Amino acid sequence: MRGRTQWVSQVRRNYDLYLLLIPGLVFLAIFKYTPIYGLVIAFQDFNIFKGIDGSEWAGLKQFERLFSSDDFVRVMTNTLLISLYKIVILFPIPIAIAIFLNEVGKMWFKRTIQTIIYLPHFLSWVIIAGLFINIMSPSTGIVNNIIEFFGGEPINFFMDNNYFRSVVVATAGWKEAGWNAIIFIAAIAGLDPELYEASKLDGASRIQQIFTITLPGIASTIVLMFILRIGNVLEAGTEQILLLYNPTVYETGDVIGTYIYRMGLTSMEYSFSTAVGLFESVIGFFLVIGGNWMAKRVTGKGIW
Q: Main localization of the protein (predicted)?
């Protein structure tokens, strides 16, 4: 009762702040929690004309179909490989960018570089896909023109299974690496400048300062972002891949998100696509839990 009284008293004192929470809570309730009811479609033979209430229940039929499907192994393999490549190759890049910008002394140069590398984030994948399709075109693209200049044969990057994953990773890095660096730049800005001054008096070089002050100082931020990235490992970039791929590269480019799109909207198999989406969400949940547990075991830091 005492705790309840204190809580009511706190609400009365800060009622204006709690009122500001209401729009955000309403947004979450309507667009995040209410749609969860639609997951029951995964356990039905959903009929769009009968609706959720009128459709027949099918139990685990859709999940059995998913796990026995020939496409399941291919789609899961592509999703995990593309996500793994993005984590291994792209995750360290924003950290390196943040450290590099922190070492730049000229403010005008630093701001110019920041503006340039942030800009691609504000371009939609539609624009970026069209841009890279033109740049890497086998007939008129500048990349293939350079390859031909040095005596090579033109490469159709978007129709070759040997190159498609590399294109996906490269375009994702070009678009988001600079923007993702903002979090690490903010974390570095929060470090105590006196630590750097003291290290200079001790004779530490710039490289030594990076490894003894900067990286340990932002370790908690790195762990947090890594755990969140692991939780999204089954989200390999659906929008990006939808705009870049075609049937000739389904073998290496078809991921869970694009598979859900094709089965749900193109083939109108709503129950099956919902089951695939639910499977992806459950796996993502356990990956976040497991990633947090592993991070706490290895580094002693975690989200909770």
A: membrane
Tokens linked to 234:
């089954």
User: Do residues 143 and 136 lie in contact, with contact meaning Cβ atoms separated by under 8 Å?
Assistant: yes
- CB-CB neighbours of 207 under 10 Å: 9
Residues 60-102: pLDDT tens digits?
Answer: 888 888 888 888 889 889 999 999 999 999 999 999 999 998 8
Place of tokens 């504000």: 122
Print burial letters for 235-251: b (CB count within 10 Å at least 16), e (below 16).
Answer: bbbbebbbbbbeeebbe
Query: Is the pLDDT confidence value at 27 over 90?
Result: yes
Residues 6+ apart with CB under 8 A from 192: none
DSSP-assigned beta bridge partners for residue 44: 57
CB atoms within 10 A of CB 107: 8
Question: Domains in the chain and their CATH numbers?
Answer: 60-298 (1.10.3720.10)
Helices and strands (DSSP H and E) totals, the chain: 18, 2
pTM of the model: 0.81
Largest Cα–Cα distance of the chain, in whole Å?
82
Q: What type of residue is 147? A: I
Phi-psi sector, 160: left (phi>0), alpha (psi -120 to 50), beta: beta
One-character DSSP codes across 6-60? HHHHHHHHTHHHHHHHHHHHHHHIIIIIGGGGGGGGGGEE--TTTHHHHSEE-TT
* pLDDT of amino acid 1: 58
Q: Which long-range contacts (CB under 8 A, 24 or more apart) does 110-118 make?
A: 114/178, 116/178, 117/177, 117/178, 117/179, 117/181, 118/178, 118/179, 118/182
Contact 175, 128 (CB under 8 A): yes
Here the tokens at position 60 are: 């685990």
pLDDT at 169: 93
115 φ/ψ angles, rounded to the nearest 5 degrees: -60, -45
